[in-house]
User: Fold Metal-dependent carboxypeptidase from Mesobacillus selenatarsenatis.
Amino acid sequence: MEQKVMNQTIMSALEKFNELDEKISHFNSILGLLSWDQKVISPKKGRSIFANANGTLRTEAFKLTVSEEMGEALSTLSTPEAEEYLDEAVKAKIRERLKFYNRSKSIPAAMIKDFSVLTSRANDAWEEARENNDFEKYLPFLEKIIEFKKKAVEIYGYENHPYDALLDEFEPGLTVEKLDPLFVKLRESSADLLRRIQESSYKPSVEIFEQPYPIEKQKDFNRYILPLIGFDMEAGRLDETVHPFAQPVNTRDVRITTRYLENNVRSAIFGTIHEAGHGIYEQNINPEFQDTVLQEGASFGIHESQSRFLENMVGRSEEFWKYFYPKLQEHFPEQLGKVALDDFYRATNAVQPSFIRVEADELTYNLHIMVRYEIEKALIAGEIEAKDLPGIWNAKMNDYLGIAPSTDSEGVLQDIHWSFGGLGYFPSYSLGNLYAAQILNKIKKDLPDFYESIEQGNFSVIQDWLKENIHQYGMLYTPNELIVKATGEELNADYLVQYLEEKYSKIYKL
Amino acid sequence: MEQKVMNQTIMSALEKFNELDEKISHFNSILGLLSWDQKVISPKKGRSIFANANGTLRTEAFKLTVSEEMGEALSTLSTPEAEEYLDEAVKAKIRERLKFYNRSKSIPAAMIKDFSVLTSRANDAWEEARENNDFEKYLPFLEKIIEFKKKAVEIYGYENHPYDALLDEFEPGLTVEKLDPLFVKLRESSADLLRRIQESSYKPSVEIFEQPYPIEKQKDFNRYILPLIGFDMEAGRLDETVHPFAQPVNTRDVRITTRYLENNVRSAIFGTIHEAGHGIYEQNINPEFQDTVLQEGASFGIHESQSRFLENMVGRSEEFWKYFYPKLQEHFPEQLGKVALDDFYRATNAVQPSFIRVEADELTYNLHIMVRYEIEKALIAGEIEAKDLPGIWNAKMNDYLGIAPSTDSEGVLQDIHWSFGGLGYFPSYSLGNLYAAQILNKIKKDLPDFYESIEQGNFSVIQDWLKENIHQYGMLYTPNELIVKATGEELNADYLVQYLEEKYSKIYKL
Assistant:
């Protein structure tokens, strides 16, 4: 009898939970579409008006996330008694909704509203400051944002380092304690590799990229490769924006963007492949997770691993271009007709320290992240102050990359992330590279013909592996569970270090 | 003291009402965008999944419309005591919300759900039936839809004719009693004019349209004229769909579509001008009505008057082509280089009875509507039965247009409207023509240089008049109030009859 009553309570809590979870997921799907629409195709005069409608729906979704009903259902369902009755997927849904609930519920509504106003103003101030190279104008906003984040981490709580509370938002379960050794190893080996590369006299010539590539031809080429590498064009779109991005609406409607620059043919090609990596991930999530909290990728880092894997491990490999280079030459006979494949391949992998993260090569990119990671950690721990950032930034750039920008616009002001409060976000980019290299190591073992497949343009065998081991799971597993399940071990920096060493040793004859 | 208490109650009801009205309007704005997205650009595999998310938001908006809170606020605010405190706009908002509330509240939720399932299936059945010329397959669905509509009109209530309850949904306040004399006059005079046109030996030659017009050039021309005739391209978009339509998202984001057929250059041009008429209306609604129930056009008929006015009264006028024809010739030198303006103008206004409504000319179009109006009225009144429709359809076509289709696909099965339950909708099209002609009569009085302005490509003076007298008001006035305010008199068929008589007398030398 006791047992039966229990069942009843759990069942009705579960029903309520599923109803709320579906509604929030529907609203998030719509919000995804709206965000894409406003960035990609909405007429500009309507945007500020539409922001109000958008805000109403966002608020509605947020209210459901932290509603009393949700709290009650979660509290009933997260007892050990209830867990006996729940399958893996339901437990994962509860885990994720509970995380959102606790995190959002903990911050007072007034604080959230103030922060929303602050970040909106901070974004304008940042844009202006970057344009005018005027850090002082941005400083008061940045200070307030850091102050808010410091308060927030105290509310969220953490065990060792306050930055853990921020990391957890983007990479659930990750801590400074786990991340520091990985990043130190990556940073030190990358800095050493960079030094050796700079000393090499066997350098690729990047002059082949310093000529105009007609944009219409670039579009043709990008639209040609996109379905071949695994992106389903009937379950997605490719559009153009200044800042490329991927936006899922649902698993059969995933929209990516790229940008075409006449004087930089690499930008569109690798931008498209990168966003395709994000897109293919979303397109292959288990359809049963559709309209639940599990319908998205496992974390920012795991997501980034899929885009980086396709962009770098696949798209910047010699075998990739063995297959695609003749087609690229057909598109650009004047520019590349007389350029040998090897020269082209080496040029696409040229390493050159530069000031701007988003333009960095595969090796120095991680060093850009290390600058930001060290700074964010120290800011949150109160070890440094925002007003000293320009100097600290330049010193770290000099330290890690051997160059320092002459303006703050090319330095500390270059990224949008802090202005929207995204502290804790940057590590995801390098985590993505670490995950990707570890996945590469495993996939090469499982598919000994990995590079031969690429050379033959057979990407489906690779996409099948990724779907089987990563994509299908959506948010079912935590990032750590997922990488252990997929590769048999916890995240380890050795694979990326080794991959970079091997790749550049060959390209630069080290 | 009593007075003060009253004030307090009204004030809080008003506050609640405005909050709900804004939220519903925001949701409707989003639903408009979603509908556009799914029709125009969404990847096809994602649509059936997205329909669930869309349905969740639609249900949410509907629930608010008929919520207890809304009912209470409306009941407090629609008392004579309250009305003393309310301005014209608030009263109009209450009028509109009360209409939605009463109409939606009156139909039981189960009935609405059943009807939604029915129309979804009916639409599939209709598509199949039209494709296979199989009326019998569609008949059971049509019978159920009519049965539902008959029940609904009894619930909605009506004074004289049951069809009044359906008319009211599309043209608030309109009745069979008012409409019959207008339509009879229009029908009889149109049939007579058609007879005389067919007897004329001075016929325009439409052969100039029976040749290919390259689609890229058509696009250029359409994009060229659109901003010139008053459509703000920064507050809207032009896209392509098989069935052109206009969709407002908000007053600064109005999206229209057109279609390009290589063998029918008129289709895109007049389709674009027609939809631009709808779009310009929405773009010029008072921004203060944004995010309220008043943010849209006054009725289907008034909306159609704006599209028809621009398409026919302006776009098919001789003066319009005096201005634009040289540019059109530039776009199509091979096709039109040797065709005189007068021959082109007459050809665009050629009258030819045909089976398909959407392809009909300006004169016979209304006769197509009369066929549908007479049938709908008789169906709802129980004077005819659905199973007899093919024969009735053909007889009426013969009666009004002098031709009868040889297949039901070209006859009674051609329109989508009945399959979604849109009985009462068709009259809006001819109402639009009637309103448009009455507006033309008034605008020519107010702007004696009306046709000279068109000839000089000066459309702003005309759009300013329309904005001042029609567009700005959104839903502030009922259609009848609006036409009286704009033209000084109630709707009258004489203006359209006279306009058609004058126009075709000249073109066909009657």
User: Anything to note?
Assistant: Strands of chain B lie at 236-240, 246-250, 253-258. Chain B touches chain A at residues 22-23, 25-27, 29-30, 33-34, 37, 41-47, 49-50, 52-54, 56-57, 60, 232-237, 249-253, 255, 290-291 (CB under 8 Å). The mean pLDDT of chain B is 96.
